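User: I want to check something. If I give you two sequences, will you return the structure for each one separately, not as a complex?

Assistant: Yes, each is folded on its own. Here is the first sequence with its structure:
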Amino acid sequence: MAAYKRILLKLSGEALLGEQGHGIDGDVLNRYAEEIKAVHEFGTEIAVVVGGGNIFRGVKGATEGMDRVQGDYMGMLATMINGMALQDALERKGVQTRLMSAIRMEQIAEPYIRRRAVRHLEKGRVVIFGAGTGNPYFTTDTAASLRAIEIEADVILKGTRVDGVFDSDPEKNPDAHKFDVITGDEILKRQLSVMDLTAFTLCRDNQTPFIIFNMNIEGNLLRVIKKEPVGSTVVWE
């Protein structure tokens, strides 16, 4: 029996780079699709938000002289490319999938409509949310928090390359301490970077828990669903 009935999985675009310097690594994409399929077969309803940083970042464009709004819209289109790739990978494995976009582009995706998204989930389809919130100046972390709240997900699962929340960067400090469970207030007090402040505030105001875990360890996603000791759980007092 799944510990969570409905989840929202947030994946970073950079993770899709794999060992490549740009674009989408087919092996990583296939591995993520396998992980999602395993959870889907376990009986959990799954929505996914994937970033676009492997293709384009609006903030980076702005630092190089590009108009920030223009850059952010380009970043939203990048998330759609990743969403289409993930949809294809899942459907080749026999998983029914719907790609929904916050920006209208009917030839490749359904427009995002909350009630329709919930209906897809209830019918057992994996729903991928693309194009962020549809607005510039908002990250895909914020889009993930917003969509999770709208579809009434039990939890947000943020798949990263580190296994949770640490008191310092574990990739730089081998003695970094990992928190199995940590409160949102403690994260703010310690000024730990787990997601952007807008996304964090949305989760706090709506009492939405989130778990940060290493998506690159095979089987980790299913372990999280089973509430095995994986990653770090952020809770609200």
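And separately, the second sequence with its own structure:
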Amino acid sequence: MKWLLAGASGFLGQALRVRLASEGHEVTRLVRRKPATSTEFGWDPDRGEIDPAALDGVEAVVNFGGVGVFNAPWTEQRREGILSSRVRTTQTVAEAIAARPEGQRPVLIQGSGIARYGIVANPEPFTEDDLAAADFLAQVTVQWEGAARAATEAGARTVFLRTSPVMDRSGGAFAPMKLAWSAGLGAIIGTGEQHMPMISLDDFLGVVQWAADTPHAAGPYNLTLPVPTTNAEFTDELARQLHRPRVLKVPAAVLRTTLGELSGQVLGDIYAVPERLQADGYRFYYPDVSATVAAALRREPAA
């Protein structure tokens, strides 16, 4: 299969590129600089421009474009960057797909976020049918997914990955967590009772490939554990597998003082399940927190 990746230089994009190449797929990618190889194609999403040859023969387009959410304070300028970087990349890709002749439109596998459901505790888990919350990140996901309208209206199969933090020692949120715990500095956050969505890297990559290969896969999917976990359960499991004591606790007030508005994403409760993903036939390699932590600490991928 021939793939085209947008956002291929990030943690998830790099992992997907390596996995696909190792399995013999043809992988090309979009770059903002001048292309340096035959597997790179230029684009400028700020101007809505993309090399039309980038889509020739492509069967699956994956878009993970967007600036980081948690690596800088949410100033007004940063908020605009978080939103616009996602909307513009998605619009550009979707319009390029829509412009292809009928029968030559690849599946669009589009990034999104589990933050869509907000950070307020809910007695029942959120599923893909639930409405978006009103907070900033939730509304970002609404506009992010909406930006793919050109592709969906053109009849291109479109899959939205409402992704949780992806756990793996090679990068993402898990790498600094492992470092802190290995140094004896791991801690429960706040009360620890808040639900903490997550997914293993192997399952994240597995869902991407499943979405490309499964003709009936379309619409939104929650990428999170089918067996939900809490912050306390996660930290206790990480402590157990790293053979470190879990004695520290970071009070909510301290996080609010140090992180400001971002603290809500750390202290908030996101209780969601992958209802459609399981109903449509995806089977998780690592369905619970124990298996996910173990997978994140290993180097070898799932068989």
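Because they were folded independently, the notes below concern the second chain alone. Residues 47 and 88 are 8 Å apart (CA to CA). The radius of gyration is 19 Å.
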